[in-house]
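ok trying this again, last paste got cut off
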Amino acid sequence: MPLLRILFVLLAVLLSCAARAQPWPAKPVRIVVAYPPGGGIDVMARQIAERLTAAWGQPVVVENKPGANTIVAADSVAKSAPDGYTVLMTTDATFSINPHLYAKLPFDTERDFIPVTMLVLLQQLLVAHPATPFNDLKGLIEAAKAKPGTINYASYGSGSQPHLAGEMLKHQAEIDLVHVPYKGISLAVPAVMAGEVQLTFAGIATSSAPLKAGRIKALAIGGARRSPLLPQVPTFAELGYPEVETHAWFGLFLPAGSPREAVARIYRDTKKIIEESEFRQKQLVDRGYEVVGSGPDEFAAYIRKDSESRARAVRISGAKAE
């Protein structure tokens, strides 16, 4: 009997070692997207998941967990098994803005996650209704100073990217703009087109069709350089307002403690996907995304710097969330 028991123990150890020796991934991988289906980040997640499935020979499935300004999805991933099989795909809201917007989060953004890669960076445009009497940022600032409190701008909520950009513009230019929060990102540009508000901040993908149709006009764009898709639109930095940050980014994260092999493999293979020439051009560049593909250490350093910048913007805006 003791001998039989020893054999069972040895067999269990061998099976356990064999399981651990299997290369990652050895089972399906789940990408938890912090936004609803249909948006830009969801579409990108599904395109990447399809290609990773083919590359890995394992199903890569997308699960949407919107809610509480990305907190629902992030909390779910933070508390999942750190085995590399649950990936968070989210935006800068989770890591750069929320820690300064909320008094308390159910996770620690630095302690509970491993940054894997920043996929893309996207800059937003400041757009206006075509009937407004100004056609550039200088004209807007002059009009705002001439009649304080008469020009308004739309956002998709307190602490959202457009809100922080608008408040930083007010601060830097010393003007008074009225903030009008809407309930969703999809409502702000239509509000400008309809003349409900005069201004908003929006991405190139959202703005391109109404810009071409003349239903809105672009005054400035964020970033260090002009977009090749809209080379005629100057940046806030070149116009003298470098602190007006309008960017957002999409990135991948794993729970803290996940295997290094998983971190390295996800980074390597997603970078390969977004840098593939046809995918890069048609799915990313032509939609206004700047392809990044940064590694884990570089991404972590960027988040720390980005978080410091957003902390200042939140402080100046006075935005708070419960």
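PB: full thing came through this time. Residues 11-19 have pLDDT under 50 and may be disordered.
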